Amino acid sequence: LHFTRNKIPEELLSELSELEELTSMSQSYKYIRDVISNASKPLIPYFGLFLSDLTFIEDGNPNLIDGKINIFKLDMLSKVIMDVQDYQSVGYNFHKIEPIQQFLTQFDVLDEETLYDLSLEIEPRNVSRSEIL
Known about the structure:
The protein has 133 residues and is mostly helical. Helices cover 61% and strands 3% of the residues. It has helices at residues 10-22, 26-38, 47-60, 71-88, 98-105, 112-122, 129-132, and strands at 64-65, 68-69. The chain has a two-stranded antiparallel sheet. Strand 1 (64-65) and strand 2 (68-69) form a beta hairpin. Helix 3 (47-60) runs antiparallel to helix 4 (71-88).
């Protein structure tokens, strides 16, 4: 939704830019890795980071080397999985606040196809910027 970005209020654009930089894939997610490594638990890490790591390990390393199980690949995979488990080991101590609970549960959960269709409604393919704004 490149053109629709212009509809975001100016004061929110800088926050959006910070989030985009933080979750940028550049330098193998360097910024988010730095933030996560310096943060204290509990925290909810950016899951895309782990998925990316698992994908690169799986796709970039053979299962077998000279007919033997590639233990180095399994070790790399296990380290990523242990990191995820480590973040899950510390719970949050939230107190239920009914108005917030109601607010957060009032929204419909939309599936990916519906979200995609809505994005095309807002910003159809192959249209010029002037046709959207």
